[in-house]
Design goal:
By secondary structure, this protein is α+β, with helices and mostly antiparallel strands. It has eleven helices and 17 strands. It has an eight-stranded mixed sheet with strand order 5-4-3-6-2-1-7-8.
């Protein structure tokens, strides 16, 4: 036998909290404009006109409008209509609104708002006054005025906010509309004080991506803008749900790009659950965890592209410096033909202005240009069978060739890691490690940079001549380096000497 006395408790809510909830969920006043525009989008509007005056805001659309049942749903807090019917009837748009509380955020910036609407032969006006609502504690009704239908008027809805208590910065409103409204959607336009709002074109290197998951697709693009862009407030990758920006993130890119103001872009994932104030995601969900996993993979895949972009400016400088150094080393080798390794044959000075230069061979067989065609067929086959040493390079490598003699020497400036050796030679290719700490230090100034590259090139060329005698190679390098830079020193007395 149950001796407990049971009774029922009525669940009530203080109506003043309705306004408070709206105000707190939408801390920024500009959010109310976003909410009204997105309501128009959900109602299949093709055009939304926003007018901001000193004491009023008007948001007017040409959507489907509302009949009596529609108005009841509009003022039904927490209505599940949009969740049960997630697509709009005309354009099959993914509806944005979910909670039905956003309209009350309007009262954080004004004293009351009016809703005028027309759908077919139904036309009405609703006035929601903040003071009247809070004054009448027991009254939960809102005055509804059903008007005589005007056939010449199109279907749609017009929301007027009166008694504005906060200032609205027009450029800031435009920026927020671009971020939080699906202005890229087809058959949809938004006008602010008569000016059509369009998505801003962001110049830079665009890296698109598209990934599928069990919850839906993740797609978008990451943009690395020019170095001149320093607007940190606009930086970040916009995380969008149903084309609306919820938040921004860098996903670790700030560790790969020196100036984070250069990082922009967007990622779309409509399956992500969002918070009630639409300013963040519910993070302890499998959908959000999967989203982060996908973005981590995206960042890993685009890292080589980011490396190439980060090297772009440095590569231009490296090519200019390398071209200059190779030309000077070439001239120094002409002055010092005995320092040339086999196959790197210097060009002799022409005796007259007629004809081209000849070749002076330093090889052991002393083959001249006249009798070089007399090489036996066996010797030619042996030469063809030689396989050059090939090293896999990244797209950021800078390669230049010293065109001198029959074979020549190539120089490659490449990433090998800070712990790898400063430079090394494979076959006839000299590799310079751009990650080496000394290279990083000397690359800061043009004069020391050129001297550093010249030192490494002459060092390797002299070692190629006689790899078993490094002392002699060092002595030859000193002479070769002086001859390579002496002309420049005469013209620039402040240049560091060899």
């Amino acid at each position: 036998m149950n001796n407990k006395n049971e009774t029922l408790l009525e669940v009530t809510i203080d109506k003043s909290h309705i306004v408070t909830i709206g105000e707190r969920l939408y801390g920024e006043s500009v959010e109310l404009i976003r909410e009204l525009i997105n309501n128009a989008y959900d109602a299949d509007a093709t055009c939304v006109k926003v007018t901001i005056n000193e004491d009023s805001i008007i948001v007017e659309d040409d959507g489907s409008g509302m009949d009596l049942d529609g108005l009841k749903q509009y003022f039904n807090i927490g209505s599940t209509l949009k969740r049960k019917s997630p697509k709009s009837p005309k354009f099959a748009r993914e509806r944005i609104g979910e909670f039905g509380i956003g309209k009350f955020a309007s009262l954080s910036a004004c004293s009351h708002f009016e809703v005028w609407t027309k759908k077919g032969d139904f036309q009405a006006r609703v006035i929601f006054d903040k003071e009247d609502w809070q004054r009448s504690q027991d009254k939960w009704y809102i005055p509804l005025e059903i008007e005589e239908t005007e056939p010449h008027l199109k279907d749609g809805t017009k929301v007027t906010l009166k008694g504005i208590t906060k200032k609205f910065d027009i450029p800031d409103v435009e920026r927020r509309i671009i971020e939080t409204v699906p202005i890229k959607a087809p058959n949809f336009s938004v006008f602010l004080n008569g000016h059509k709002i369009s998505a801003r074109f962001i110049p830079g290197h665009k890296i698109p991506f598209l990934e599928g998951t069990e919850y839906g697709i993740v797609y978008g693009e990451i943009i690395i803008t020019s170095q001149l862009d320093q607007d940190i407030t606009a930086a970040g990758i916009e995380c969008k749900v149903k084309q609306v920006t919820i938040t921004k993130d860098f996903f670790g890119l700030q560790e790969l790009v020196k100036n984070i103001a250069r990082i922009k872009g967007e990622v779309n994932a409509d399956f992500l659950p969002i918070t009630s104030d639409r300013t963040g995601f519910i993070k302890d969900t499998p959908q959000y965890i999967k989203f982060l996993e996908v973005m981590e993979g995206v960042i890993k895949r685009i890292k080589p592209v980011l490396d190439e972009l980060s090297d772009y400016k440095e590569n231009k400088r490296a090519r200019r410096a390398l071209t200059e150094v190779l030309e000077r080393v070439k001239n120094a080798l002409i002055l010092n033909p005995d320092y040339c390794p086999e196959g790197l044959i210097p060009i002799a000075e022409s005796a007259s202005d007629v004809g081209g230069p000849g070749y002076i061979s330093q090889a052991k067989d002393k083959v001249s240009p006249v009798n070089k065609e007399q090489k036996t067929e066996t010797e030619l086959k042996k030469r063809r069978k030689r396989k050059p040493t090939v090293k896999k390079l990244t797209p950021t490598a800078v390669i230049k060739k010293l065109k001198l003699g029959q074979q020549g020497v190539s120089c490659c400036i490449e990433h090998f890691g800070p712990d790898a050796e400063e430079c090394f030679t494979e076959g006839t290719v000299i590799y310079i490690n751009r990650d080496h700490p000394l290279y990083q230090k000397e690359a800061q100034k043009k004069n020391t940079y050129i001297l550093h590259i010249a030192r490494l090139l002459t060092q390797e060329i002299c070692l190629m001549k006689d790899p078993r005698n490094p002392r002699q190679a060092f002595q030859r390098q000193s002479k070769l380096l002086r001859d390579a830079l002496i002309e420049k020193e005469k013209n620039n007395p402040n240049r560091p000497s060899a």
